[in-house]
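ok new one. same drill as before - structure tokens go in, u give me an amino acid for every spot. 252 of them this time. try not to just spam alanines like last time pls lmao
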């Protein structure tokens, strides 16, 4: 029985054959790992990011259909990018942007507005420009976080940003149906972004999480990519938030 199951699994058809996946923030980390996994499932991928050289390296590695270097938070550049992408698009993953941990009283009004609206505005901009090109049943995937659900002094505005995203995603899913919208809420992911934030404290954080997480290891970009591709494949899921933090929110 086990041999038959193994043979059947190895012979299954790639689940994303003939589909196009756009990775906004696809030159490294979660975006690039999702591109790898989507390609393994038969998809064509389009990568975007700010760094043209890093994009070219990523493109060569995964065999991307095309790349585009621009700042995703530049609404005009984002609009021009989607205008240039041929129909149809099947899935879009947005990993661009980073967490905000500034002390509330140290932030000026513009910084507060940016922190609270950045991911929502970017998600809306992507939806406006992409949805008309997307097939029914395709999905727009946005990134959030689980760590910001805890109210702590050192997290500053992060809990407020975290709280905004699930209802926003659910409401957007109703507006753009039959395109689906889902939120991936991650904890610490051992990615280049985490390395840039933590610097010399990175290894200490890894060791702490290995010792305390229920899964006994840190979450890697490949773990998040596996979830992202699953949500592309499973067409029954929309308006939902999916946690992937190895249990960090319960023990950290």
């Amino acid at each position: 029985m086990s041999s038959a199951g193994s043979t059947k699994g190895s012979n299954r058809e790639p689940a994303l054959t003939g589909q196009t996946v756009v990775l906004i923030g696809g030159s490294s980390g979660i975006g690039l790992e999702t591109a790898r996994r989507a390609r393994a499932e038969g998809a064509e991928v389009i990568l975007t990011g700010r760094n043209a050289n890093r994009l070219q390296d990523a493109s060569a590695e995964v065999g991307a259909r095309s790349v585009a270097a621009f700042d995703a938070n530049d609404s005009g550049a984002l609009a021009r990018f989607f205008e240039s992408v041929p129909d149809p698009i099947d899935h879009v993953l947005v990993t661009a942007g980073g967490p905000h941990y500034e002390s509330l009283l140290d932030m000026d009004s513009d910084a507060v507005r940016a922190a609270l609206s950045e991911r929502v505005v970017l998600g809306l901009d992507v939806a406006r420009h992409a949805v008309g090109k997307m097939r029914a049943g395709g999905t727009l995937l946005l990134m959030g976080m689980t760590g910001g659900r805890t109210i702590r002094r050192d997290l500053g505005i992060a809990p407020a940003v975290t709280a905004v995203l699930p209802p926003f995603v659910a409401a957007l899913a109703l507006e753009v149906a039959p395109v689906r919208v889902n939120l991936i809420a991650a904890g610490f992911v051992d990615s280049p972004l985490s390395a840039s934030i933590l610097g010399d404290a990175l290894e200490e954080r890894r060791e702490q999480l290995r010792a305390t997480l229920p899964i006994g290891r840190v979450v890697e970009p490949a773990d998040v990519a596996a979830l992202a591709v699953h949500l592309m494949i499973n067409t029954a899921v929309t308006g939902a938030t999916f946690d992937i933090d190895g249990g960090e929110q319960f023990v950290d």
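Residues 1-9 have pLDDT under 50 and may be disordered. and btw Residues 211 and 217 are 8 Å apart (CA to CA).
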